[in-house]
Amino acid sequence: MKGENVTKVSAFILLGFPTAPGLQYVLFLVFLLIYLFVLVENLTIIFTVWSSSPLHRPMYYFLGIMSSLEISYVCDIIPKMLDGFLLQRKRISFVGCMTQLYFFSSLVCTECVLLASMAYDRYVAICHPLRYQVIMTTGLCVQLTAFSFASGFTISVVKVYFISSAKFCGSNVLNHFFCDISPILKLACTDFSTAELVDFVLAFIILVSPLIVTVLSYGRITLAVLRIPAGTGRWKAFSTCASHLTVVTIFYTALLFMYVRPRAIDTRSSNKLISVLYTVLTPILNPLIYCLRNTEFKDAFKKVLRFRQQ
Question: 16 or 156, which is more confident?
Fold first, then answer.
């Protein structure tokens, strides 16, 4: 590639979901309702956990942090989508694109570590119930949360630095609805093998390492549950982990399918559909999965409502 053909891109065009103008307004309304619903349900969880003393325990503390991550996800991505649907303003500056990518990547990495922390909490609760309060102290919960955010946001600095250092030429159209790593690197016209290698190594560390911790935790949990005499006690013990295990399965299935699958089966339409799953639908599903069958949380929520109505 000749040097004169390499240009410094000042902005990208987010192609989004190309449809007829009328359907764009329908998509705007759909995603606006989704956006508001995610905000309301996750803020409700945060407020309920904060205001109800029976929920001041590690499991619900982590759930509140998870809800704050879900809010951050949608606030990072959906407002720009809504702007594109309603006003057809699909342009995003280079700095704005890198900023959106940085926060998205940081939130994903943070959630990976936080899910591992929640798995460890369930492991201690089931395998060491008598020592649970001694091990899972408030200080340890704060440390695990701080480590989740610190590792996620620090690793993303390195990833985005190498990606932003790539040179771009030709088209500046991103065939996506937000600034993600793969569509950005596809527009690079210089050698970006270093950026890809750095991204792969860091992704392996921040995605696979917490997954190993989660799998090991649930392996120990399964063995402990199987030692419980058959009956309601066994199911009751494992039911406390079912919600978290469901969220972990959805989260990692989407991520692994999106970023680890072979390029031969990579299609742009499937990229967008899978991205919608873990950036938009997951923030809706996670609170519902955690809270709909959680009697303790529902009782606390009812008490909060009664108190507010007095």
Answer: 156
pLDDT tens profile 63-105:
999 999 999 989 999 999 999 998 888 899 999 999 999 999 9
Whole domain around residue 139: which residue ranges?
Answer: 9-309
The CATH number covering residue 183 comes to 1.20.1070.10
Read off the pLDDT of each residue in 272-292 and give the average, rounded to a whole number.
Answer: 81
Structure tokens at 140: 């340890």
Pairing of β 173-174 and β 11-14? parallel
Residue 281 scores a pLDDT above 90: no
Q: How many residues does the chain have?
A: 310
* Nearest Cα residue to 122 out of 64, 57, 70, 56: 57
CA distance 61 to 118: 10
Number of domains in the chain: 1
Domain membership of residue 276 (yes or no) is: yes
SS3 of 268-297? HHHHHHHHHHHHHHHHHHHHHHHHCCCHHH
Identify whether the C-beta of residue 111 lies closer than 8 Å to the C-beta of residue 69.
yes
**In terms of Cα–Cα distance, which of 86, 83, 40, 112 is closest to 291?**
40
Can you tell me the distance from the alpha carbon of 275 to that of 240, in angstroms, rounded to the nearest whole number? 29
Ranges of H-type helices in 16-93: 21-51, 58-87
Closest by alpha carbon to 117, among 214, 256, 222, 243? 214
Residue 4: inside a domain, yes or no?
no
What pLDDT does residue 210 have? Answer: 92
Is residue 116 situated within a structural domain?
yes
